[in-house]
Structures are given as structure tokens and as C-alpha cells.
């Protein structure tokens, strides 16, 4: 049986907020951003990669305290923050919710969503809270939280990954009609003046002579 999913703070992993029920499903979304570059004479634009966008995860979390006869917000507000005016918002020493601004960080904390082997480091971007049942005394006892999580990755880790990719990656290029070392260097390095790197790596004596179908090694520009 799959253990229940939970949310926690990355810097304080002992502060676990368990889900009363596992989500029936969750959606993972990933996208990349490209810029359209219009080239005169071409029937369609070229697309240049700009940046990757963080993954996002969305799901519904269900909470029910009807049988216990207690306010369901004692669970839900540990995620969203204590509802203003509720009895729990006045509890002395009450812990802040995961979406509240941490007084030391001056921002909401980085969180982890854990469900079995799926571990997602994230910030809680958005939560829509819907109460669907109330106790005769007036407090809510059933709630659904529609949660949107945005992936968080430390900048220094991303920089290290980029350096590793640049240092170890060797590409190949299959020459097409109209290609030149200058145009290939411009596309691969962003500077046509770096054509000598390709010429030296492929032992090309005459840079003006390229044959369609010829395979070139594209070295890393360090």
C-alpha cells in the first residue's frame, strides 16, 4: 500500500504536513520558451531556444474531519496559513503555514512534495481552498485544496550542470548544401569567427571546401 503523500519544508523536514487522503491523480507540466526569429526570404521563422521553464505539478488534496468532529482547517491551514479570524489563528505559538512568509527567509520556504518515490522540490505557487461540509456548530469539516507547485532548483546547481554539459559534450554536424564553416560556427558558438575551432578539429586545410554529407566534429568552445 502506498504511504500517504505529504508536504514539508526543505530546511525543516520534521515539519510534515500529511495528506489525509492520497490524491487520485496529479499533473506534471514542463515547457520550453523559444523566440521566433524572422529571416527575410524564408516562409517560416527560425526558432531560437531562450530558456527552459520550471516543471509544475497540480493536484487536488482532500481533507475530511467529519467523523472526528473537529475543524478541518487545523489540517488545511498548515499549508495555506491560518485563516484570519479562525480560532486557530489565535493559538499561542501556532506554526506558520507553508505559504506564509518566513521571518528569517523573508519569503515562503522551499518545500518538498513526497509521495512514494516521487520527490518534488518546489514552492507552493497557488492553492484554491473549497469547503464542502460544515459541522452544526458552523466550522468546516470537509475541504478540497487545488494545489499548484512550481519546481525550485538552486542557481548554483544549474550553473554546475551547464558547465558539466559544456565540458563533456562533443557534437557532430552533417554538412548540407550551402553550409560553410562560418555559418556552422555562428550557429554552434554564436560567433562565425570561431570557425577555426571546427577546421582544426577536422583537419580541414581549405575552409572553403565542404562536401554535402561530410560529417564534422564540433568541439567544445572553452
Summarize the structure in words:
The protein is an alpha+beta fold. It folds into two domains: 6-153, Elongation Factor Tu (Ef-tu), domain 3 (Beta Barrel); 168-218, Membrane-bound Lytic Murein Transglycosylase D, Chain A, CATH 3.10.350.10. The chain is 17% helix and 34% strand. The chain has four helices and eleven strands; from the N terminus they run ββββββαβββαβααβ. The strands form three sheets. A seven-stranded antiparallel sheet has the order 2-1-7-8-9-6-3, covered by helices on one side. It has a two-stranded antiparallel sheet with strand order 4-5. The longest helix has 14 residues, at 155-168. The chain is elongated and about 85 Å long.
What percent strand?
A: 25-35%
State the domain count: 2
Low-pLDDT stretches: none
> How much helix, percentage-wise, in residues?
10-25%
Fold-level CATH name of the largest domain? Elongation Factor Tu (Ef-tu), domain 3
Strand order of the largest sheet: 2-1-7-8-9-6-3
Tell me how many strands there are.
11
Q: N-to-C terminal Cα separation, in Å?
A: 51 Å
Tell me the series of helices and strands, N- to C-terminal.
EEEEEEHEEEHEHHE
Class of secondary structure makeup = alpha+beta
- Second-tier CATH architecture of the largest domain: Beta Barrel
| Silhouette | elongated
The radius of gyration computed from the alpha-carbon positions, rounded to a whole number of angstroms, is: 27 Å
Please give the count of helices. 4
Highest CATH level, the class of the largest domain: Mainly Beta
Overall residue-averaged pLDDT value: 83
Largest sheet: 7 strands, antiparallel
